[in-house]
Specification:
CATH topology: Aminopeptidase
CATH architecture: 3-Layer(aba) Sandwich
Order of helices and strands: EHHEEEHEH
Radius of gyration: 16 Å
CATH class: Alpha Beta
Number of helices: 4
Strand content: 15-25%
Number of strands: 5
Strand order of the largest sheet: 1-2-3-4-5
Number of domains: 1
Distance between the termini: 55 Å
Shape: globular
Largest sheet: 5 strands, mixed
Helix content: 25-40%
Amino acid sequence: MIIPVSKENEKYWAEFCSALWPDSSAGDFLDERARGKLPYEYLAYMEGKPCGFISLSVRTDYVEGCSEGPVAYIEGIYVKEKFRRRGVAGELIEYAKSWALAHNCHELASDCELRNKVSEAFHRKAGFKEVNRIIAFSMKVRK
């Protein structure tokens, strides 16, 4: 079962977000949500327990490898370790596909860091095709 994140279940969602993005605390995600950001957040349940989440957005700017917009984008997807390899991530991807169509998007995109081989393998297994690799650069400019 997949349901929208609400006040009643957002604590679980925030904990999962923090597990996926450990540089931020669960409180950071709850603060972002309270400010009206992160509106398309969904929790997966298995055996009556929250077991994962998917964060979706609609991107109207350029998205690598996509030819028509708007594009549904998976900002994050996570399944708690003890529920992995039980079909939860696949259900979340199927949910994202339906969600995309409901939001007038005909393409679904995602990304992962170059060194995240687990995420790369997951995306390939889910049916995504690699469209590009980049290395990002930045520099501080001082007076």
